[in-house]
């Protein structure tokens, strides 16, 4: 009898956590309440409060289960490889491909929920501690798998490999690609624009930047995003913070999503200006891997340590766009512009035409390392190790571009 009761409790608890996944994917962290989770899970409100006394407890429960599930999947894969089964994985790049493909397609909902959780957790000490535990375990298991592959894998190679996989997931989730589209993009067989995901004729006209009241509303929305996250951006909160009438935000922005889109675009423009200014101030006769590693590290350090809150806000909206099509235009524009910029920079280093595949790999590494730093509150010493990772990746990419 006791065993049956325990099994029933386990099933109910998992149903509640599955309900939280549904709420996060459909409506984001702002919609998480005991009532919304109970409704999505198909259980009573009383059952939800019995197993999870607070909203934070439900979120922490899903965070722990998600981490355990992901690490268990990797452990099973490692055991299959030890048993000599055919897994289709012979290099770490194969592992990156499989993990990212599954995250974008088969396990999409749970992957998006994890992205939401890792960013939400960055706002609390307990969330950052859980993220550190996740990254430590992921690095350990990826290293163990790497040790089993024919290609020698140095321990220092694993961290950037895990970061690249995380970066690719964050980058590509807003595209909502099919498995074949994702495979072709990840394999470098096609560009984003070939799938109609990002239009090549998109342009970013600096003269279109908003002015007056519209600009003020956007700045208030950004402040709310930075301080509290996407859930804080409402017409009422924006109008109160701006000292305007309740109808002012809706006059300039017909939906909250359109205001969030404008805030996202403004955040991207700020980041792009910072990157451009850094390149203008940095003079070198030739952009070789060492020089570019220095510059990339300097920009990374600034984004992780000085502008970490803005980046947390930016990527919180980025993840939301995976399910909110209204938020996608500025995200896809940012993704395309970033890839084009990395491609031009790599072209200067190799004296070759821009390589979009190599650019995507470097872009993913930068983003993945930034997300690790933000979500775990990495120390200066930990962030400083990024320079070696960038240098190693750039040397490899130069070799690939010149082949």
CATH class of one domain: Mainly Alpha
CATH architecture of one domain: Orthogonal Bundle
Order of helices and strands: HHHHHHHHHHHHHHHHHHH
Average pLDDT, rounded to a whole number, is 85
Overall 3D shape = globular
CATH topology of one domain: Arc Repressor Mutant, subunit A
Radius of gyration: 22 Å
Helix content: over 70%
**Class by alpha and beta content:** mainly alpha
GO molecular function, one term: transcription cis-regulatory region binding
Pfam families: TetR_N
Keywords: DNA-binding, Transcription, Transcription regulation
Protein name: Putative transcriptional regulator, TetR family protein
Structural features:
403 residues; mainly alpha; DNA-binding; HTH_TetR
What does this structure look like?
The chain has 403 residues and is an all-alpha fold. The chain has a domain at 1-53: Arc Repressor Mutant, subunit A. It is 74% helix and 0% strand. α8 crosses α17 and α17 (356-376) packs antiparallel against α19 (386-402). It is globular. Mean pLDDT is 85; it is low at 199-207.
Break the fold down into its secondary structure elements and pairings.
Layout: H1 2-27, H2 34-41, H3 45-51, H4 55-82, H5 92-104, H6 108-121, H7 125-148, H8 155-172, H9 179-186, H10 212-228, H11 235-242, H12 248-252, H13 256-281, H14 289-305, H15 308-320, H16 328-350, H17 356-376, H18 380-384, H19 386-402
DNA-binding region: 33-52, 234-253
GO molecular function: DNA-binding transcription factor activity; transcription cis-regulatory region binding
Protein name: Putative transcriptional regulator, TetR family protein
């Amino acid at each position: 009898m006791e065993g049956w009761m325990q099994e029933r409790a386990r099933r109910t608890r998992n149903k509640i956590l599955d309900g939280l996944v549904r709420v996060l994917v459909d409506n984001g962290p702002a919609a998480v309440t005991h009532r919304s989770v109970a409704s999505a899970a198909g259980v009573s409100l009383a059952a939800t409060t019995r197993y999870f006394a607070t909203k934070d407890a439900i979120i922490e429960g899903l965070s722990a289960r998600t981490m355990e599930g992901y690490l268990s999947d990797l452990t099973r894969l490692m055991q299959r490889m030890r048993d000599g089964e055919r897994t289709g994985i012979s290099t770490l790049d194969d592992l990156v491909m499989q993990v990212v493909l599954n995250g974008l397609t088969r396990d999409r909902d749970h992957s998006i929920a994890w992205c939401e959780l890792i960013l939400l957790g960055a706002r609390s000490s307990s969330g950052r501690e859980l993220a550190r535990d996740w990254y430590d375990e992921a690095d350990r298991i990826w290293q163990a798998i790497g040790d089993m592959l024919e290609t020698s894998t140095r321990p220092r190679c694993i961290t950037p490999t895990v970061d690249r996989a995380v970066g690719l997931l964050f980058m590509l989730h807003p595209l909502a690609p099919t498995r074949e589209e994702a495979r072709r993009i990840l394999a470098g067989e096609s560009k984003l624009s070939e799938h109609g995901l990002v239009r090549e004729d998109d342009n970013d006209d600096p003269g279109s930047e908003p002015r007056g009241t519209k600009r003020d509303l956007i700045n208030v929305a950004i402040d709310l995003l930075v301080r509290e996250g996407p859930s804080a951006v409402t017409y009422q909160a924006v109008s109160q913070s701006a000292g305007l009438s309740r109808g002012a935000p809706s006059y300039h922005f017909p939906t909250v999503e359109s205001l969030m889109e404008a805030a996202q675009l403004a955040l991207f423009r700020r980041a792009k200006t910072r990157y451009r200014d850094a390149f203008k101030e940095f003079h070198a006769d030739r952009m070789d891997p060492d020089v570019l590693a220095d510059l990339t590290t300097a920009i990374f350090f600034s984004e992780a340590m000085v502008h970490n809150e803005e980046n947390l806000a930016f990527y919180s909206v980025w993840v939301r766009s995976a399910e909110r099509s209204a938020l996608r235009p500025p995200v896809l524009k940012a993704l395309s512009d970033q890839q084009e910029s990395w491609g031009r920079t790599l072209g200067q280093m190799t004296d070759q035409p821009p390589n979009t595949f190599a650019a995507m790999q470097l872009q993913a590494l930068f983003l993945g390392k930034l997300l690790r730093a933000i979500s775990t509150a990495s120390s200066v010493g930990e962030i400083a190790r990024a320079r070696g990772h960038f240098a190693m990746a750039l040397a490899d990419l130069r070799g690939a571009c010149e082949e």
